[in-house]
Specification:
Structural class: alpha/beta
Distance between the termini: 101 Å
Order of helices and strands: HHEEHHHHHHHHHEEEHHEHHEHHHHH
Shape: elongated
Strand order of the largest sheet: 5-4-3-6-7
Number of strands: 7
Helix content: 55-70%
Strand content: 5-15%
Number of helices: 20
Length: about 425
C-alpha cells in the first residue's frame, strides 16, 4: 500500500508546517551554539578519554587533539578535527570521535607499535612491562600506574597473535622477500594449528609491521649513538634495478669496549657527485634526530672505495668532511686496494693475460650452448666427478671471480679435456 499524500505534497518547493518548525529548530540550535553558548573543557573527560590532549594552542586559539590520531594517521585521514584541533568541547563530540573509524585505526596502530617494541624481548610478560613505559607517547596526561593497567588489560591471546604476525614480517624483511609472502606464511601457520587470527594476513599489514619494526630499530640505534662517545661512517654506492643511484650508509661505534657495525640508511642520489654523496650522509643522520654539529663532534673515521668523487683531495667527499672535522681518519677499502694492487702487479705479465683469455673462452663455449653443457655434465657423471659450471672472470670482484673460475676448471679438468677431445674429433670427421 502506498502512503497517503498530504496537502503539501501537491505543491513544489513548499514544506509542511511540521517540517518547517523542525528546520527552524535545527537552525536556532546551531545559532545558539555558535553565538550564545560557550562550552568549556571538562577536566573529568581526561579519565574517560585517555588520549585527549588539552590545551593545545593553534593559530591563537585553545583547542584539543587526540594524541594517538596525531601520531599515527597519515594523508587525508589527518583532515579530521581531532588532528587539526577541535574547539567543540562537548561529550557527544568526543564520544563520536572515540567510535570513529579513524580513531579505531590509530589505536590499532598504537597497539601494534607497543607489541613490536615488547616482542623484541624474550617473553610476553616483559612485553607488557616494556610497552607500558612507552605508552606516554599516546597520552601525556595518563599517570604511570594507569598506563601499566591499560597495557596489561590487553588480551594475552591477541597480543600473542600479533607477536606471531610481527615475527613473520621480520622474517620476510630479513630475507629480502616480497611483502606478498605474508599471505602464504600465515596460511602455513594456520595449517600447523597455530592461532594467529583471521586479520592482518595481507601485504599491506606486512608493510605496517615492517615499518614499526624499523622504527623500533631506528630508536635503538639513536640511543646507542647518543650514548657512544665517537663513531665512524662507512659508505658505498650502487645502482638499483630502476637505474637509480643509491648510497648505503653504515655506522661503526663502540660502547663499553664492544664494537658494533649497524646499517644506518639507504639514500637515493639525484646525482653521483661529491655534494650529493656528502648530503646523503647527513640526511641519514637526520632520521636519527642527530644534527650536523653532533655528528662532527663524534665523527672520527670514514671508510669508502677509491672513487675520485670520494677520495678527491680538493672537492671530494673526504675534503668536504675535513673542512668541518680536520682530525677525521679516512680508510680506503682494503679489499679494493688489494684488487687494484694485484691488477697493477699482473697487468704486464703475458701468461696472466693468456690465463684470463682461456678462462673467458671456456666460459663462453659452455655458456652459449646447452648441448655442450649437457655433454660436459655427462662426462663428469661417467668419471664420478662433481659437475661444476665454468664461470666468468672479470667484474667488480675480479680476484674472487678469477679464483672461482680456476677452482671450477681444476675440479672438472679431466671431464673438460675428455669432452673437448670428443668435440675436436667430431669436427675433424665433419671436415
Amino acid at each position: 500500500m502506498t502512503s497517503q499524500k498530504g496537502l503539501w505534497d501537491y505543491f513544489s518547493g513548499v514544506s509542511s508546517p511540521k517540517q518547517e518548525r523542525k528546520k527552524k529548530k535545527v537552525e536556532s540550535d546551531k545559532l545558539y551554539e555558535k553565538e550564545h553558548r560557550q562550552r568549556l573543557f571538562n577536566e573529568n573527560w581526561r579519565e574517560k578519554f585517555k588520549c585527549v590532549n588539552y590545551p593545545v594552542e593553534m593559530n591563537g586559539e585553545i583547542k584539543m587533539t587526540c594524541t594517538v590520531c596525531v601520531m599515527h594517521l597519515k594523508g587525508d585521514d589527518r583532515k579530521i578535527s581531532f588532528v587539526r584541533g577541535s574547539d567543540n568541547f562537548s561529550h557527544h563530540n568526543m564520544k563520536d570521535h572515540e567510535n570513529s573509524k579513524f580513531h579505531i585505526k590509530a589505536v590499532e596502530c598504537e597497539t601494534a607499535r607497543l607489541v613490536i617494541e615488547a616482542s623484541l624481548q624474550s617473553n610476553l610478560q616483559s612485553c607488557s612491562t616494556a610497552a607500558s613505559t612507552s605508552l606516554t607517547s599516546c597520552s601525556q596526561q595518563i599517570p604511570d600506574k594507569e598506563q601499566e593497567a591499560e597495557v596489561l588489560a590487553l588480551p594475552a591471546m591477541r597480543a600473542l597473535k600479533i607477536q606471531h604476525l610481527f615475527k613473520n614480517a621480520h622474517a620476510i624483511a630479513k630475507a629480502g622477500r616480497p611483502y606478498t609472502d605474508m599471505t602464504w606464511i600465515c596460511k602455513l601457520y594456520i595449517s600447523k594449528g597455530i592461532n594467529i587470527g583471521s586479520t592482518y594476513h595481507n601485504y599491506k599489514a606486512c608493510q605496517v609491521f615492517t615499518h614499526y619494526i624499523a622504527e623500533v630499530e631506528r630508536q635503538n640505534l639513536e640511543k646507542q649513538l647518543v650514548k657512544s662517545k665517537f663513531f665512524s661512517v662507512i659508505v658505498d654506492d650502487t645502482i638499483d634495478s630502476s637505474r637509480t643511484e643509491q648510497q648505503i650508509v653504515y655506522v661503526r661505534f663502540s660502547i663499553n669496549g664492544q664494537v658494533e657495525t649497524k646499517f644506518l640508511s639507504l639514500e637515493a642520489l639525484e646525482r653521483a657527485d661529491s655534494k650529493s654523496l656528502y648530503g646523503a650522509i647527513f640526511t641519514a643522520f637526520v632520521s636519527l634526530n642527530l644534527c650536523k654539529d653532533t655528528v662532527f663532534t663524534k665523527l672520527v673515521g670514514f671508510g669508502s672505495d677509491g672513487a675520485s668523487v670520494v677520495q678527491g683531495c680538493k672537492s671530494g667527499v673526504i675534503a668536504l668532511l675535513r673542512a668541518n672535522q680536520p682530525s677525521i681518519h679516512t680508510v680506503h677499502c682494503t679489499a679494493h686496494r688489494v684488487e687494484l694492487a694485484v691488477r697493477d702487479a699482473t697487468k704486464n705479465l703475458p701468461y696472466q693475460q693468456k690465463v684470463e683469455q682461456l678462462l673467458l673462452q671456456i666460459y663462453l663455449f659452455y655458456h652459449q650452448s646447452a648441448l655442450n653443457r649437457a655433454m660436459l655434465k655427462n662426462a663428469c657423471i661417467s668419471m664420478g666427478i662433481k659437475y661444476l659450471t665454468p664461470t666468468r672472470v672479470g667484474g667488480t670482484r675480479w680476484i674472487t671471480h678469477v679464483r672461482l673460475a680456476l677452482q671450477h676448471l681444476l675440479t672438472i679438468y679431466k671431464p673438460l679435456c675428455h669432452h673437448l677431445q670428443q668435440v675436436g674429433k667430431s669436427n675433424c670427421k665433419t671436415v
